[in-house]
Structure formats: structure tokens, C-alpha cells
Amino acid sequence: DLYFRLNVIQIRTPPLRERPGDIELLALEFLNKFCQKLKKDLKGFEDEALEKLRAHAWPGNVRELENSIERAVALE
Fold this sequence. Notes:
Number of helices: 4
Oligomer: single chain
Strand content: under 5%
């Protein structure tokens, strides 16, 4: 019953690999978030890093990108 109540309107969100323009914006947002959380002073990404982020297929979508950025900040 709950499924059918919630399934009245379906919203399709395309996967991250279909939205390459969102990758840099999300990556910067996650970078700022984790720099604050982990008390790091990182300002952005080099062009080569952004190219690699855009080239990745992101099968885990936004969650995978978020985890990757958190790991990078933690290891910096």
C-alpha cells in the first residue's frame, strides 16, 4: 500500500554520467564540505583532476563521487 501511495508521481533523475556538467559543481561542493569537516585547507581541483572526474562513468552516481572526494580530502 505504501509503495502505491508513494508511486503516484515518478521523478526521473538521470545518472551522473549523463550530467557531466554537474560533476565539477558537485565535486567542489563536496570538497568544501569535507575540508570543513576534516579541517583541511584545499581550494579546488587542478584541470587534470577535473578531466579525470568527468571521464569516469560514476556507476555509483553522486554517492560514489561524494565518497571519492571525501577519501581524497582525508588522504591529502
